[in-house]
Amino acid sequence: MPGKRIPLATPTMHSEEMAYIQEAFDRNWIAPLGFNCDNFELETAAYLSEDNKYPCHALCLASGTSALHLAVKLAGVKHGDIVLCSDMTFSATVNPVSYEGGVQVFVDSERDTWNMDPDSLEKAFEKYPQAKAVMLAHLYGTPAKMDEIIEICNRHGAVLIEDAAEALASEYKGKKCGLFGKFGVLSFNGNKLITTSGGGMLLTDNEPDRKKALFWATQARENAPWYQHEEIGYNYRMSNVVAGIGRGQLKHVEEHRDLKEQIYNRYRDAFGDIPVTMNPYTKEAKPNFWLSCITVDPISDVDPMHVMRVLAVHNIESRPIWKPMHMQPVFAGNDFVSANEKYVDEDIFARGLCLPSDIKMTGEEQKYVIDIIKSCF
Length: 377
Ligand SMILES: Cc1ncc(COP(=O)(O)O)c(C=O)c1O
Hints:
Layout: H1 16-26, H2 35-48, E1 57-61, H3 64-74, E2 82-86, H4 95-99, E3 103-107, H5 118-127, E4 133-137, H6 146-156, E5 159-163, E6 171-172, E7 175-176, E8 183-187, E9 200-204, H7 207-217, H8 240-250, H9 253-270, E10 276-278, E11 285-286, E12 293-296, H10 304-313, E13 319-320, E14 336-337, H11 344-351, E15 352-354, H12 363-375
Parallel strand pairs: 2-3, 2-4, 3-14, 4-5, 5-8
Antiparallel strand pairs: 1-9, 6-7, 6-11, 8-9, 10-12, 12-15, 13-15
The protein binds pyridoxal-5'-phosphate.
């Protein structure tokens, strides 16, 4: 075991992916569109919506980031519009606001899920009543406090965009993440719960919005015999080959989720006697446990970066908590709103660490990781 690299999260392939890829080759359908794309969309929508219990129209795209960009466009964000954004997330959540000339205002997190704090969101709307949209991420696959967030967005007439890139298969009150916003986004990046090597999906509750996004994603080609363009378009479609990987992976999505939960529970049970706390979730939520994380309790003076360095010496990958957007130099000019006396985001970032959560990690390997972490305290 010592010496063997233990990663944070890597792709886990099965046998079905190759069969779908082979079919694409056999039928010479290597183009950006095709039967794997169509079926991947239908199968994902059926999975998320539990066979049409909720409306769900899916569009597979080149990346989660391109899906977020099209969601921002569909939300009608234009030059100078304010978008209230999750602060503690990966930058891809918020960059697409800039693509459209919008202005991000970052909103602090709460401690129960590490996601956007409803009280801070309310305060942000008091300061920016004209905010056009809210960009909400479910960090590390843990569902945010959706009832409160949706109520606030509705009351202020703002469009909710749900970045569920890390939260495929996560549920809030029995409904899948990605279906709560006017627009939802998934990522199939290599480190996600399931992967297509690279890819994403846009989710909407209606076909006209899906069609509009498809139009933009395919170079905004008007219906004419020649190339006719009346709007700016993008080349954002997923290829039929990689959509085949997605179809094969989707068959294993629940199995991947369950393995992630076992990893989380093993960490939680093992850490009962050291001063750390796992990334929390509420009783309404069923997370996908995409990444298991800890925060070092305030009574301890152990620096999480020390733990990260010790793990690295043993060839074990860990990573700091996503650095809040309001602390990023690129967003130095953007506002940050918090209803908390002490900024929650900054505190979690200072005390937190993401731990290996690869579903191929064996129980023995995880025990090795746990023992090294414990030796730091
Ligand atoms: C929260 C979040 N949003 C968006 C993205 C972007 O997705 P993609 O890499 O597929 O563009 C990622 C991850 O990559 C993410 O973690």
